[in-house]
Batch of 2 targets.
Target 1
Amino acid sequence: MDIIQDTISVDFLEKVFLESPLSTRWQFLMMAIGSLLMVETGFFPTSVNFYQTEVAFYCADGEDVYGNNSEFEDVCQSSCDQFAFNYTNMDISSSIQETFKLVCDREILLRFHGTCFFLGMLLGSLIGGFASDRIGRAKMMKISFLVKTVCGVAMALSDSFICHLVAWCVVIMMNVACWMAVIPWISENSKKSRRHSSVILAGIAFSTGGMLCALVGILLPNWRHMILAMSGITLASFLMSLALDESPRWLWTKERYAEVFKIIRKGAKLNQCELDLDLQSTMTKLSQQGAPNRKFYQEIVPDLKRICGIYKTQSYSENGAQNTRDKQYSFIDIFRYKVLTIRMLLMCVLWICAILLYYGVFLGASLFDQNIYIYVVVQGAGGVIGSVLGAVLLSFLGRRRVAQAMTFVAGLSFFSCIFIPPHWEYFVLSLTFLVRISMELFFTLCYIWTAEVMPTVVRPSAISLASMTARVAGLAFPFISHLGTVWTPFPMLFYSLTALLSLIVSGFLPETRGKVLPNTMEEGNQFGVGKKKKKEASNDPAKLESSSSV
């Protein structure tokens, strides 16, 4: 029993599998499947650019009337019952504006379609990490793809705008929930030296999905056909996700050793080698003492009860210690630990700065007075370069230095735009290109850094909380550009100060490059703490008792 207990108390899983050559081919296979699945997640968010476009409309027996034309009000105030839409010089042949007759007094519903996009992102950030902590990362991804397939078909075939909106909101919600599961899954299944590269690869895959969505839009200009085609791609992704294995690290924290042993045997088979007899014996004993695979309601209900303050039941082993398998964690537990609380708050601030700066440049064609087509192409190229560059910089400079360097570049570029003459448009375009590269890297870094700082038992929940906080702050983004009506340089100054704030906040977070990821709440609370303070915390009975009571 002592041998088994010692095995659990050390980083046994990393030594015998995750960081050993035994897992190399298994990790490569899982990363390949995961990257292909990330390509799919770039389709639906990008597709909105094709069918949510405002189209010029006019009365069927009248003259053309364009969006902000002076004759626009005359058409809406007339008794015209049938409208026609002008798709001249457009790459689409239909839109939801025409399908659901979103004109005149109903035109505001077209903008509400965009509101549902952000609402879906908020809900996905809220439930994604919570659910993946309870039912597993791989299972959350599988559910996401299946639900997106059904709702995607509902979007394409529905004749009700309300049904279309609900289905659209659910699609985006499950898309974000999938992100909340993918990032921790990749971080937990990668070797320490390749962790950041794997996450960067996922970001490149997402950008690739966005570019492929443009190809689908060109081949299928009818928006219903395009959505159906993407739903077919999502269905193929769901079938591919069935080959995914659950995160061994997550299974280990749940004491589901039998399932971990099954994955280790699979890794040995892929590497065409035999497992050590001592390892087999140890894993067999662990499997017999481990927790069984619990049902969904067995994982969710206790946590919901505890959030409501009515979950009091705890079970203990023969020696009086509380069984870790009965502990259920959520983001609420983060705020029961001082160090984790401070870091979580700093991460939320960092995420808010990241999303404001990211959308500030990504949707800044009008702010920077640029040609929208050239601007979108340049921004897309900056996104790909930023992802590739991140794989290199994060290997040599670490998280903190890269974060500070990228925010410095972004802040200096925004501040420079205040003094650049308006007719230097190509110079401004070059600066926005640099900002997009830095923000693409910085935004991806926020996912990586949060996943590495927070312990395994609350990792997706922490990412979900930080992402949700950032999405709420992102709702204020449309109002930032209006600051220019008060004082023209105001938006640029705001983004410059936001970049400065993120640069300062980055300095208070620990460096995680090449470090062993914390698994338990106690390990996370001591992660990156100075040796002297860490020793004092571990030798202080009061602190230990306080931690165990949590």
Target 2
Amino acid sequence: MRRAFSLLAAAAAVLTPTLAFVPAGTSSARRPAFSFASTSTRMTATAEETGTSSDGVDNTDKIRNIAVIAHVDHGKTTLVDALIRQSGVFRDDSQADEAGERVMDSEDQERERGITILAKNLAVMRDGVKINIMDTPGHADFGGEVERVLNMADGVLLVVDSVEGPKPQTRFVLDKALKKGMKALLVVNKIDRPAARPDYVVDKAFDLFVELGASDEQTDFQIVYASGLQGKAGLEPDELQEDMTPLFDTVMEAIDPPVIESTASDDLQCLVSNIDYDDFKGKMGIARITKGTVKAGQQVALAQPGKDKKTGRLSKLFVFDNLGQKEVEEASAGEIIMFAGLDDVEIGDTLITNENGGANAAEPLPPIAVEQPTVRMTLGVNKSPLAGREGKFLTSRMIRERLFKELDRNVALQVDETESADKYMVSGRGQLHLTVLIETMRREGFELEVGPPSVIYKTNEETGKEEEPWESVEVRVPEEYVGGVVDLLNQRKGELQDMGLDEGEGMSVIKYLVPTRGMLGLRSAVLTATRGTAILDSVFDSYRPKITAEIQGRDKGSLLAFADGSVTSFGLEGAQDRGKLFCEPGDDVYKGMIVGIHQRPGDLEVNVCKTKALTNMRSATKGITTGITAPIEMSLDACVEYLAADEILEVTPSKFRMAKNPEMAGKKKGKGKK
């Protein structure tokens, strides 16, 4: 039993790629330094399971390829967990309990943040039908993962919360699926919530389908009511069965099997949608076979329109099986495969045959198109006086290699050289998209200097005017805090779209269009103004003419260290009256480093390294002691939100330090006393 579970644990932790499910192209750099070596233990697949029976009869009706899409925190991963547990993946209840909850969220950051970051593949068997399931992120910043994965699916499970209904990210992901002509199965999740209102949610979902221009066939969607946490589902909200059988049955009925034009070997077309790494097999591609058949050991080529072909031979061929993969000799159209042997494979390549020199090979498919990034930050070598004390990777060459390696699998990311040889401009979908990358690099041992986030402007080709990105924002907040939230959004040049009372939970719902510039740092300000009760969701809306007026950022300055040295308790006693501090006694600081938040606008230098004079004089107040207030603990996300235009963030494996940018010294002086 111990040996059996060790295989499962390796799969769930994504430390054994050959047995584990594929966490959306987890790179070797993302894996911990202590990751286990891959094992060659494999299962032999039957020809029937790969889409073609031994007598050549097409069995694609035995396959369903579905992507699970939803807004963040609507229960996708919990729902997929229930499907896994009821599909015979685990040997018994004790093995399932040891695997833990949210098996698919295997990355450390996913479990810590409580969100899905990387799209992942798995496959389950149900009544002789193989269901390939792709679990996708729900946060708008990781929309590139969703767009990429939809290329492998034939239909989608649209998961919607039974109280909140469709949200901004629901619109984004559903729009992508409908444009690809996919059918959607609506899953009203969390139906066990006391405030559930399924009729309202279904009506809102139907309205959303109509707004997005869905066809008559797409708007005639089927509905399943479920509780992923309890593992129950039903066709009526008040008639749930004790398991997920109604959902499985409806997937078979509502989602069409793959449409196959040809299974001839020469017609092979296979669009690579994901990349994985293995310590022994190297770079591996994950793709869905659109046409044709592929065999292990076959001569193949990777092609993109307008680019030279890259030829090679498939050394290994796998299909997905439960939480892992199994090696097969052949796979046909409709199946999702993973292959090794082509080290220069890239996302967007089309796998085609190269038999007979590729004389009869099919044309490559159009590469994957994703939305353009809207926010950028500079990442470079840490040049602070305290640099090099902790990190293993410090040089610009190491940082450059790591950033460009990330491009292999992160299709929504862009990395550009800058005028400075030790800085790189990294562009992404949003602030969270970039901070997840920075946090990953920090845990790998990198030291970085990070600049403040800024938006990406573009020029309208028709009007010639400069435009900036705007976001659609929805805030759910208790009624007593509505005024404060509206005031904040107005300060950020937002435009009110709608305001009303949500009857389900008695919360007020405020909808705004806000420039992305105004969204930088807004989340923490809203949480402060509402005492942590607000729920803020945003998604990219469009590019609109740039606002010429200045958008107000934070209204308080920073407390700066007066000199290099170690923080003393005596120095903190005098400094804490000036604002809230980030440091504690014993911390090393340097001149210009931000040690706290000033209670007024403008920056102020404070001497937190001041020591008590050692004299034999006694004062009348000697017996009076002053307590030291506990410092504010700043996370990476909080630090990035705090940064002003003339400030930088120093990131090391164990510390975050903010400071004034020395390169901008004198360009923007603080208004406080010096």
